[in-house]
Every structure is written in C-alpha cells, then in structure tokens.
Write a structure and sequence with these properties.
Elements (H helix, E strand, L loop, with lengths): L11 H76 L22 H8 L8 H31 L10 H35 L28 H8 L12
Helix pairs in contact: 1-2, 1-3, 1-4, 3-4
C-alpha cells in the first residue's frame, strides 16, 4: 500500500485552490441531497393529493345519488302534508303504510385528516390546500344535515302506527317534523351543489349513481309508494342482497 503524504501548501493560491475544491464538493453534495429531498416531497405530495381526490370523488358520487332521490323525498313530504291538512286534528284521512326515510350516505374525511395529521398537506400548494380543505367542511355540514333529517323522519314514521285522532298536539308535532325535513332538503341541496361545482373546477367527476344504472332495479326506500305494505316494501328492498338490517319503524 502506498501512502501519499499531503503536499505542503506553498502559497495562498494553492491554499485557495484546495479550499475551493472542498467547498465545491460540499456544494455538490448538498445540492444532490436537496434534489433527492425535493423529489421525495413531490412524490409524497402526489400520493396525498391523489388519495384525497379519490375520497372526494367517492363522496361526490354519494352526493349525486342523494340528489337523484330528492324528488322522491319531496313527493313523500307533500303526501304527508296533504294527509295532515285534510285530517287536521281528527282521525288520519289516509293511513300511510310506508313513510320510510331518505337514504343515508356517510361522507368520509379520513384521508384528508390522515394527510393533515401526517403533515403531507403542507407539501401541497396554498391554493390546493384551500380547495381540497373546503370539501372537509362540506362533508361535515352534509353529515350534520343528514343526522338532523333522519331525526325528523323518525318522528314522521310514527304516522304508520298512529291510533285515534291527532289532536292539536299531534298535528303540530307532525307538522313541525315535516317543516324540519323540508329545511334539511334545502340544506343538503345547497351543500351538494357547492360540492359538485367545486369538484368540476378541480376536474373531479363523481361516478354514476347506482340508481342511474338501468341494470340496477331496486329503488331507494323513500321512492316506494306510501301505500306499499311494509312487508312488501321490505321484500322489494332486500332484492339487492343488502345485509338483513331491515328498515326502522
């Protein structure tokens, strides 16, 4: 093995040359390290962006399915409203066999929360953070409106088993539930409209709702006629192979 002793520096020029070589080497190393880190950050940001967008796409698909059933919901509320109007405080003019309720869609924020908690969202641009973050607010608002809506419909289903005259208290009770349900229809419609418009700007398109697929023949519970016997309605709704959870009474 040959061991070369370092050569002595005889002038400032040689010293500056040696220092320059070292500095250039350090700069090159730092630049390469920064480049690798930048590429890694871009990859992480891309993964986070695609994960969040996929979650948004799924939620928009659920919203589109909900929007398609709005006419059925409004028609059912009109039917109940007419029953209450004609019955006033007496016996029900027509006893509804199947009040039902709107379908429930659970919008998820898990991927957005995971990206935020891990710090990956900070790798996105400020505009992206703002645009994608709005969907988290929209999802929360939609889920809350759904919960209030289901509470109103749980009261309206009491008409299926109501016995005797409504009385003033009964009439006010059901009329209030109808109005609450009507408000939540408006709330969900506004929320869905905002989400779909923002999704279009971001190039995120929802999948076609199942009910828009002609091969899917099982309707939503709320779209069955109000005169449908409960046993028949449950039989129809079970045709899609859903878990045997049934429908609330």
């Amino acid at each position: 093995m040959d061991i070369h002793k370092p050569k002595p520096v005889h002038s400032w020029r040689e010293l500056l040359s040696e220092v320059g070589v070292v500095v250039i080497g350090i700069v090159i190393a730092l630049t390469l390290e920064e480049g690798v880190r930048t590429l890694h950050d871009r990859e992480i940001a891309s993964e986070a962006r695609e994960a969040v967008k996929e979650e948004i796409r799924q939620n928009l698909s659920y919203m589109s399915g909900r929007l398609e059933t709005q006419p059925c919901i409004e028609r059912r509320l009109d039917e109940i409203g007419r029953i209450l109007e004609t019955s006033r405080e007496g016996e029900l003019s027509t006893r509804p066999n199947w009040v039902s309720q709107p379908s429930v869609y659970f919008l998820s924020n898990q991927r957005w929360q995971a990206a935020t908690g891990s710090g990956r969202v900070s790798l996105l641009s400020t505009d992206e953070q703002g645009s994608l973050g709005v969907f988290s607010v929209i999802n929360t608002r939609f889920n809350e409106a759904e919960a209030r809506e289901q509470a109103a419909w749980s009261q309206l289903r009491g008409l299926e088993s109501w016995q005797g005259p409504l009385g003033s208290e009964g009439r006010v009770h059901f009329a209030t539930a109808v109005q609450e349900a009507r408000y939540e229809i408006w709330e969900t419609r506004i929320t869905i409209g905002l989400a779909l418009r923002l999704g279009e700007k971001l190039g995120i398109k929802p999948d076609m709702p199942k009910t828009m697929d002609k091969s899917y023949v099982v309707p939503h519970a709320i779209c069955l006629p109000i005169s449908t016997p409960r046993e028949q309605a449950l039989k129809i709704l079970s045709q899609d192979g859903s878990p045997p959870w049934g429908q609330p009474k």
